[in-house]
Write a structure and sequence with these properties.
- This protein is α/β, with parallel strands linked by helices and 449 residues long.
- Helices cover 39% and strands 16% of the residues.
- It has 15 helices and 18 strands.
- It has an eight-stranded mixed beta sheet, with helices on both faces. Strands 15-14-13-16-17-18 form a six-stranded parallel beta sheet.
- Helix 5 runs parallel beside helix 6 and helix 12 crosses helix 13.
- The longest helix is centred in the middle third of the chain and has 32 residues.
- The mean pLDDT is 96.
- Bound molecules: nicotinamide-adenine-dinucleotide.
- Nicotinamide-adenine-dinucleotide (NAD) binds next to helix 1 and helix 5.
Length: 449
Amino acid sequence: MKVSVVGTGYVGLVSGVCLAERGHSVLCVDADPDKVAMINAARAPIHEPGLPELLQRHVGRRLRASADLPAAVAASELTFIAVGTPAADGGIDLRQVERAAAAIGTALRAIDRYHTVIVKSTVIPGTTAGVVRSALEAASGKQAGRDFGLGMNPEFLTEGTAVDDFMNPDRLVFGGIDARTHGVLEELYAGFDAAVPRIRTNPGTAEMIKYASNAVLATMVSFANEIARLCAAIGGVDAVEVLQGVHQASYFTARRGPERSTAGIAAFLLPGCGFGGSCLPKDVAALVGQARGLGLEPALLQSVLAINRGQADEVMKLIARHYPAAGGAPSLDGVNVTTLGIAFKPDTDDVRESPAFPIIARLRAAGARVMAYDPVARSAAHAGLAGVSLAATLEAAVAGAEIVVLVTRWPEFSRLAGLLRGRARPPLVVDGRRMLEPSAFARYEGIGL
Ligand SMILES: NC(=O)c1ccc[n+]([C@@H]2O[C@H](COP(=O)([O-])OP(=O)(O)OC[C@H]3O[C@@H](n4cnc5c(N)ncnc54)[C@H](O)[C@@H]3O)[C@@H](O)[C@H]2O)c1
């Protein structure tokens, strides 16, 4: 099938190259000329394992990038909207989606055959059948369902494993306004494993499946962190051991004979310094915003966000055990603190809503001299890194540190114990991900310990 993808960020570009890998002919459209040029040179604008290889294989053959949206729509049968939907006060900012839909609608006016438009961006329930449909119909002068197909096909990929997630999805959700749109989606995904469940529904339900999926993950994280706070307050009870004990229940760890397999969701049910990224915080906040707009008080989801916001303070409380000051906050005047990890999770360069930023802000407010290190996310451009020096290597990052705060679960950080061994004045290590062995450090604190 001839496919165009409007917006080639983490989702749009990965979707585009993976659809090319499945045999489709793909045109990636982006408003950013630098991204277009990089993609056409088969260079990945983002760090994502497997992406460079797929770009090398398909650019110039089954995949091309362009800034010319009308031409891309005219040359394709189906157009995905995969632009950003950033957080806005109490909801999401739909302007990129509205602009893309209007531009696609204008392009549709000029073509005289059936075309299908599919929303892949995460949008609050009601958006596809509401503002997207209105923008398309107003700009095209055509009618959805009669002249063009319209649907919502949420994306469940996770950064760091995005290519594999797209190629081998756990489910495919088709939210179409009519049977013809469903037929187009079936055809598009026909090359994917037939055993993967296809959920055929309306656009609003498809939109809600995406939000509910992210909300349950965020809830697991905040649940684990609430249990961790309680464990730490009791004393002598380690939240990691507690939650690993919970993981062994048959509803998390299935047994088939001697084989045991733990459900992926158990990874969210562990203590840590909080969830971040471009999805979980924004999506839960948007759901809360929509609920409140409907006159509901979503107490559980509000608590999920409040607990998450509090995790930076939990890190500071661990530091305050060694650097006490009045009022509970530590006094870190002139203390050299290194934070390990800027990306919100390992295997990505995405720093959006990273837990590193609220931790760095509190460290700086307490007077610390902060250095940060990340194996991949190295851009100093982010406002959250103002006044922070960036280290080029892990060795340089910890060389002069009096406190080391581990924020991101990068595998490289397991070298920390070896690097600090034998130091005359070992730093305090604060493990925000509980990935280190406490006994390997002279001075160690961990969330939930
Ligand atoms: N990043 C993830 O892990 C992930 C996972 C699932 C769903 N989502 C959702 O997918 C959507 C996209 O997320 P992302 O992380 O890829 O965003 P992103 O910010 O990385 O990419 C968006 C891209 O759209 C381009 N763009 C914006 N308006 C445009 C227009 N009118 N014409 C052409 N290009 C335009 C931007 O230049 C940018 O390259 C969001 O709704 C997000 O919530 C993201």
